[in-house]
Amino acid sequence: MTSAPLSASASADRNPRMSALMRLRRYFRGMLRMETSAARLEKQVRDYVNGGLVLFWKRQTIYGAAALLCGFYYDVEIAVFCYLFIQFCEFSDTWVSLRIVRWKGGSLREARRYRNLLFLTATLSSISVALWAGIVAHLEGISSHFMPLFFLFAAGLFAAVNNHQIPQILLLRLVVYTGVFLYIPISDLLAVMPPLKNFLWLQLFTVVFVLFFVIECSIIFLRLYRRGLDQLDELRRERDRVQAAYEVKSQFVSVVSHELRTPLTSINGALGLLRTGAYDNDPAKARNILEIAHKNSIRLSALINDLLDLQKLESGQMSYSFDEVDLSDIVDECIAAMETFAQSYGISFDFSPSLQPVFVRADRDRLHQVLDNLFSNAVKFSRRGEKVEVRIRRTGGRAWVEVQDHGIGIPPNSREKVFGKFTQVDSSDRRSHGGTGLGLCIAQEIMAAHGGSVDYTSTLGEGTTFVIDFPLKD
Questions:
Q1: Mean pLDDT, to the nearest integer, of 86-101?
Q2: Burial code of 264-293, b = ≥16 C-beta within 10 A, e = fewer?
Q3: Which phi and psi angles does 344 have, rounded to 5°?
Q4: Under 8 Å CB-to-CB from 204, ≥6 apart: which residues?
Q5: Can you count the helices (H) and strands (E) in the chain?
Q6: Which of 77, 156, 226, 266 lies at a CB distance of 3.0 to 4.6 Å from 296, suitable for a disulfide?
Q7: Strand partners, 470
Q8: Could you tell me which residues come within 8 angstroms of residue 365 by beta carbon, excluding any fewer than 6 positions away?
Q9: DSSP 8-state symbol, 293
Q10: pLDDT tens for each residue of 104-148
């Protein structure tokens, strides 16, 4: 009977420790996992390698001087052994670094492979330095250990300043050096067990203070480098945004120039012929030319209206006049207005209204604008002789209008082009159907203002179904 409370109590006792460990784990994971992309990790690896190669001869000078001091004051054989071991590690690290210098860049997986190779060589290098310091401290016996401790301090500070590009390597070096740094004074204390006033305790306290300084320097350099990487990533994102804006601008110039050039050429040609009086004696042809000019002027007016609507939407100045409207009546009006246009393409409409009245709260003119766009697109992209099916249905408190054509369809992964600004699935100057590429973008914004949406499903070569939905009016 008491097992459950005891178990709960034990779990509660463990929870604070577990949560503290989890927080510590998340902290180190956040600190160490700096690479968010292949480009970022590649830069870290290259920065680490370039810094290491620049400091190669400085390290060689330090190792050579340390070996001479060790051989002169302690033991020649140990000095030679430690120096050769360090040189082997230096050779391995330099060999990997030169491979990375010749590396042309690649995937995140490849960048991680090179980072792991550098981690392996850094492990050998850290062990060689720690081994040298430990052996010298052992040879000194119980003493102040100035030389090995100072050598470890210099190695830790060198890692903080020059190895912060790859935090895993920095952490490795600090852990190895800290272990030996603490082992040297603690081993003396355990061997002698002196009173607190003894200099061996002072040596331990000094070592702890120096370790705190080295770790704090490491964190500072790591944060500064991370901040630099974050700023570089932000610059890359800004560059991508500028590139995307440039592409939109180019698309806009392409579409608008196409849409302007064709009707303006036709209007200029018609007016030029009439101005010369070439058809003064043929009123029928003159009227036909005027009709062509009139149609093209309407096309130009539609382009200007789309541009003005887009500007209003982007500035938040689009005005709406909401009222309760019968959705079936509006759809029927739009189909009647589109009949002549559809007949010119050899297309007819098949309208299936809802069996029940469907009332929605909408701006009548703006809803006309959305439906006109969907109907005209369905007509333009249908095959001659086909029907455009229009259906209204009610589902779950919402009204749906479906516009289905049996035309060429839309390629997969084209959603951004379909609803983008100044973009079309076929946006070349030789595309088969005119348009500014703004209609569906504007329709999407208008439907959002109505608490609805516009979407589509399509099968290439079989047709497309566009759907708009509204909340039903109570």
A1: 93
A2: eebbeebeeeeeeeebeeeeeebeebeeeb
A3: -65, -20
A4: 182, 185, 186, 189
A5: 13, 7
A6: 266
A7: 399
A8: 321
A9: H
A10: 887 888 889 999 999 999 999 999 999 999 999 999 889 888 889
What separation in angstroms does the CA of 450 have from each of 83, 294, 396? Answer: 78, 34, 17
Kindly report, residue by residue over 370-381, the tens digit of the pLDDT: 898 899 889 988
Query: Sign of dihedral through CA atoms 29, 32, 34, 37?
Result: negative
pLDDT at 199 over 50: yes
Tokens of 151: 């050598």
In whole angstroms, what is the distance from residue 345 CA to residue 406 CA? Answer: 14
CA atoms within 13 A on the CB side of 102: 5
Chain position carrying tokens 């029940």: 356
Bridge partners for 402 per DSSP = 391, 467
C-alpha span between 449 and 451 (Å, rounded)? 5
At residue 469, the 3 state secondary structure works out as strand
Q: Are 303 and 442 in contact (CB under 8 A)?
A: no
Q: Determine the residue type at 124.
A: L
DSSP 3-state of 402: strand
What angle, 0 to 180 degrees and rounded to 10, lies between the N-to-C axes of helices 3-32 and 167-192?
A: 120
With CA atoms as reference, report the closest residue to 81 among 60, 66, 92: 66
User: For tokens 């994102």, what's the residue?
Assistant: 237
In terms of phi and psi (left: phi > 0; alpha: psi -120 to 50; beta: otherwise), the region of 422 is left
Nearest to 55 by CA among 192, 159, 184, 211: 159
Rounded to an integer, what distance in angstroms lies between the CA atom of residue 91 and that of residue 96? 9
Residue 170 structure tokens: 């920095």
Report the chain's C-alpha Rg in angstroms.
Answer: 38
* Residues 135 and 82 sit within 8 Å (Cβ to Cβ): yes
Joined together, the tokens standing for residue 110 give: 């490849």
Query: 437 vs 171, 317, 409, CA distance in Å?
Result: 54, 21, 17
Backbone angles phi, psi at 470, to 5 degrees: -135, 160
- pTM of the complete model: 0.56
